[in-house]
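Lay summary. Proteins are chains of building blocks that fold into shapes, and those shapes determine what they do. In this project we predict the shape from the chain. Here is one chain we studied, written as its sequence of building blocks.
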Amino acid sequence: MASNVTVWTQAASNYLAALNEGGSPAVVWRTRFEPISADEAVAGALNLFATKVAVRYDGANDSANIEAKFTVRGTVAATDEVDVAADPLVLWAWKQLRKDASLGGVVLDARVEDVEIGYIDKNQSDEICVDVTICVEVEVDRNDPSINKTYLGG
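And here is the predicted shape, written in a compact code that computers can read:
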């Protein structure tokens, strides 16, 4: 059954819910590309946003194979060992993803593909962001990407 939301957006929504479960080291927002405020960075913050959707037509004639990538960006500030301060955010994002790699039965597999650490402002060495790239694979209807064909569902 079709909906108003693509299957990869459904997967991202399920992952967002998992990231915001009890025990999360920080609140997770959706689609905040701009740097967060210093107050949020001190406490630690997570943002989830889509970065790329690749489409392949190598399966059945009525389907398309999707490889969608999302970034979970953790932002922290610390006076010393800021990379260590970011570890709880990375660990939480990784572990929550792997608790259910199908993201509620929406995708074939969700996996961590890359972790990248960088400074938010090169002049301030006490604030960094850590980008955890997530990759999901799913098969959708060739004519309607809101129809999930991965599990013959939708």
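What the prediction tells us: Strands lie at 28-30, 45-56, 63-77, 109-121, 124-141, 144-148.
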